Amino acid sequence: xxxxxxxxxxxxxxxxxxxxxxxxxxxxxxxxxxxxxxxxxxxxxxxxxxxxxxxxxxxxxxxxxxxxxxxxxxxxxxxxxxxxxxxxxxxxxxxxxxxxxxxxxxxxxxxxxxxxxxxxxxxxxxxxxxxxxxxxxxxxxxxxxxxxxxxxxxxxxxxxxxxxxxxxxxxxxxxxxxxxxxxxxxxxxxxxxxxxxxxxxxxxxxxxxxxxxxxxxxxxxxxxxxxxxxxxxxxxxxxxxxxxxxxxxxxxxxx
Length: 255
Prior knowledge:
Radius of gyration: 39 Å
Strand content: 5-15%
Low-confidence stretches: 51-58
Order of helices and strands: HHHHHHHHHEEE
Structural class: mainly alpha
Number of strands: 3
Shape: rod-shaped
Distance between the termini: 83 Å
Mean pLDDT: 76
Largest sheet: 3 strands, antiparallel
């Protein structure tokens, strides 16, 4: 959808362009407009601009001032660039150069930085594609580990505990990021295990005498038998209760 600008806005852009204090790239970034619009508006409002009079000498003087201001801005940009990139130029690491361009391309301009470092813009774009590929590949591995841990622990692992499991696979992830991965990206929510109600001691129905009194040494068979109940979890997430009876003489299971 096309955007319509009023005359006051166009004149303001033309005045900033003809003054020569800023480059075309800076004006485009400051006013969020297309580069072609600047030249079109400059031709349209050239008669109203103070420098562009009928006198050829004043017109040449305005052009000279604009040219000198552009040279001055270019020198200032080069000084700021050298201050920020001095360590990078010493190292000579191409990967660090790409990261520097990625951080300061809005300030200096992408193609201007590529010219300063002597690299092609296509090399930078290839780096961006490769960086995104590695990012998505790493994210795919993380998602696979999350789903494996989640479904192999009966879906009771939340994002806080999941961080500990995923850290064992070599991925350090914050709580906020893990919450986003599980709840938004994978739509995995932990099944809440409700706590048991508090125990209240009631009236004892019957108290049996302590016949053994911790004396578990027996000298004959079938004299003292012990029993206990336990439960074992099944693959179908159900439990099976087991009652075993053993003879204390030889610890043999009778029933």
